[in-house]
Amino acid sequence: MKALQYVEVGAPPQVRDVPKPEPAPGEVLIKVTAAGACHSDSFVMGLTEEQFAQFGYPLPMTLGHEGVGVVDTLGDGVTSVSVGDAVAVYGPQGCGRCYQCAQGKENYCPRAAELGITPPGLGSDGSMAEYMIVRDARHLVPLGDLDPVANVALTDAGLTPYHAIKMSLPKLVPGSTAVVIGAGGLGHVAIQILRAITPATVIALDVSEDKLALATDVGAHHAFLSDSGAPGKIGEALGRPTVTAVFDFVGIQPTMDLTASLLGTESDQVVVGVGAGTANIGMLARPYDSAIRGPYWGSRAELMEVLELARAGLVTVETESFSLDDAPTAYHRLHEGTLRGRAVVVP
Predict the structure, then answer these.
(1) Matching CATH number, 159-293, of 3.30.497.10, 3.40.50.1440, 3.20.20.140, 3.40.50.720
(2) What are the start-end ranges of the H helices in 265-325?
């Protein structure tokens, strides 16, 4: 079968012929119907050899931590899914036995690293292939009649912002304001989630006029360039200088500094992007009772909730499709920032 693999540190990924895997006892083989390309993959492929070694990922490695497909073959002992089921793969996999995993929060499993458990495409072979192995059927969530290509990105680009936003829901009451920095792959979904589950005024910030247009298209009340003039424009639009919550999907120093200028008493600063920015903390360094969080992915239950939002027509993903042979181009476009939303590879 064909698979898109990261073969050499610092080199572009390659489409290669690899053996079709067979499921071991307890595993499930799915025929992939769609796989999503993500900035996390681009981040990993941008690491130096020394940095990459710290992650301990094996090479070659099939990319893709966003995946949906149809159950093809069941390993011995698997009874909870059936051949032919349309499923979405829950990516942040844990031990399945600890307190966090018992709640479906495998994204926060404290034993995953110790046990060598890694997400597909981020340490083990992922979804950028014609077939993929899923280690346990509990990591498969029913997809139902949802279009696989249109919704595969929800397994990360929907789940991650949904989890980030849910933690701030008690503050996002009528009259509140939420700022989304970075209106690309995750950000444009975050805007829709905010509009669907909160009454907050939603403001989008981005360096790209095209991304700001997308933000407006998907429901942002205001959209401004992410520059030194943004705080003034936000203050003018709101009639006050501070906001309730900022969801930063970039995480570099300029966006961290911009966020700091928008915080008020009890504001939330939620850093989702993998940039290397830092923030000052301490009683006198920030407004009173302001909080900063660094969420990671989301729970299995939250993935089900995101898919229900899609089923209700409340969340859609702007996608551009690529064949498996053209998957390296998808990652090149992602790296260059020329995608309007998410790149989806269709084997």
Answers:
(1) 3.40.50.720
(2) 300-311
> Cα(238)–Cα(220) distance, rounded to whole angstroms?
14
| Sign, Cα dihedral of 72, 78, 82, 88 | negative
* Measured distance CA(235)–CA(262) in Å, rounded: 9
Residue 83 burial by Cβ neighbours in a 10 Å radius (0-12, 13-18, 19+): exposed
Q: Which residues contact 301 (CB under 8 A, 6 or more apart)?
A: 104
Superfamily name with CATH number, domain 2-156+317-346: Medium-chain alcohol dehydrogenases, catalytic domain (3.90.180.10)
The DSSP bridge pattern shows strands 342-346 and 319-323 to be parallel
Burial class (CB in 10 A: 0-12, 13-18, 19+), 313: exposed
Domain coordinates of the chain in residue numbers?
2-156+317-346, 159-293
Tell me, rounded to whole angstroms, the distance of Cα 230 from its chain centroid.
Answer: 25
Chain centroid, CA 142 distance in Å: 19
Contact criterion met (CB below 8 Å) for 30 and 22: no
Cβ atoms of 179 and 215 within 8 Å: the answer is no
Predicted confidence band of residue 40 (pLDDT cuts 50, 70, 90): confident
CA 30, CA 120: separation in Å to the nearest integer?
13
Contact status, residue 321 vs residue 346, Cβ threshold 8 Å: yes
Q: pLDDT tens digit string along 184-208?
A: 889 999 999 999 999 999 999 999 9
pLDDT tens, 236-294?
999 999 999 999 999 999 999 999 999 999 999 999 998 889 998 888 889 999 999 99
Q: What residue type is 119 in one-letter code?
A: P
What value, to the nearest 5°, has the Cα angle with vertex 160 and ends 273 and 289?
Answer: 70
Asked whether 127 and 346 are in contact (CB, 8 A), the reply is: no
Phi, psi torsion values for 227, nearest 5 degrees:
-145, -170
At residue 13, the 3 state secondary structure works out as coil
CB-CB contact of 246 with 176 (8 Å): no
Global confidence as pTM:
0.95
